[in-house]
Each structure stands twice: as structure tokens, then as C-alpha cells.
Automatic annotation (TrEMBL):
Region (Disordered): 118-144
Name of the protein described by the UniProt record: Uncharacterized protein
Composition-biased stretches (Gly residues): 132-144
Biased composition (Basic and acidic residues): 121-130
Origin: domain of life: Bacteria
InterPro entries: DUF6507
Length: 144
């Protein structure tokens, strides 16, 4: 983290960055994030498939109609409850990795103020909007 300006107006850095080490960690973290994203996508598809396969409830009185069954309904509620958290994790991970990359590139180029700005921006909470929510419902960390 950068400290700011010193007594004589010179920019003072508290960073001691090993760019090769940062890029190695970013590469490994990016691979793990991709795996996590793939798993989340597979889980979403599996939940939809399981909810569909769980059957429906059919009214025995007219008009005959079917609604989602109890298991399907529970799976839908689970997906809805955890969807925001999973999206938050994905956005937070992406923002952190991108910020670390940008800050390191600025540091290597000697642009220490830009590196500090990149770090500050990466630390901000990501906006999370689920599909179908409309604007204004996003915001930082999901609340339970």
C-alpha cells in the first residue's frame, strides 16, 4: 500500500513488490477463479435440471393445472438465496485480480499514484445485480 506524500512533497512508497511473484499468484488465482466459475455454472444447470426432474403438483380439482413440486420449489429458493452471494464472489474476485494486475503494472512503470488509485478502486465493493432485478438493487456485499 502506498503511504502518500512525504514532508517535502516527494511521493513516498511503502510498497516492496515482486512483479514476477504477483503475476505468478495472479495466474494461479485466475485458474482457480475460472474453475470456480465453471462449477457455479454447472451447479446452476444442475439445479434447474433437478428441479424439473423433481416433478410437479397437479390439482385434482378442475381446472387441472400443474405447479412446481415441493422439491423443485425448495431448489429454486436455494438458488435464489445463494445466487447473489455467488455473483458477489465472482465480481469481488475479478475486481481484486484486475486491480492487483493494474496496480502492479503501474508500479513497474513507476506510476506510483496510478498504482495507488488502482489499488483503491479494486478495494471498492462491487455492484451486484441479479438478472431480472432491475436497476438500483445492486450494491455491495450481500446481506443475510
Amino acid at each position: 500500500m502506498l503511504d502518500g506524500y512525504g514532508d517535502e512533497g516527494h511521493f513516498v512508497t511503502g510498497w516492496d513488490v515482486d512483479p514476477a511473484g504477483v503475476y505468478s499468484v495472479l495466474s494461479k488465482a485466475g485458474t482457480a477463479a475460472k474453475s470456480m466459475s465453471d462449477t457455479g455454472s454447472a451447479m446452476q444447470g444442475n439445479l434447474e435440471e433437478a428441479a424439473s426432474a423433481a416433478g410437479t403438483l397437479t390439482s385434482q380439482y378442475g381446472p387441472y393445472s400443474s405447479t412446481v413440486g415441493l422439491v423443485g420449489s425448495a431448489l429454486g429458493q436455494f438458488a435464489q438465496a445463494w445466487g447473489r452471494d455467488l455473483l458477489y464472489i465472482a465480481k469481488r474476485t475479478s475486481k481484486s485480480l484486475d486491480g492487483a494486475d493494474q496496480a502492479t503494472r503501474c508500479y513497474v512503470a513507476g506510476a506510483l499514484e496510478q498504482a495507488a488509485n488502482a489499488q483503491r478502486e479494486a478495494a471498492k465493493e462491487p455492484k451486484v445485480d441479479l438478472p431480472g432485478e432491475g436497476g438500483g438493487h445492486g450494491g455491495g456485499r450481500p446481506q443475510r
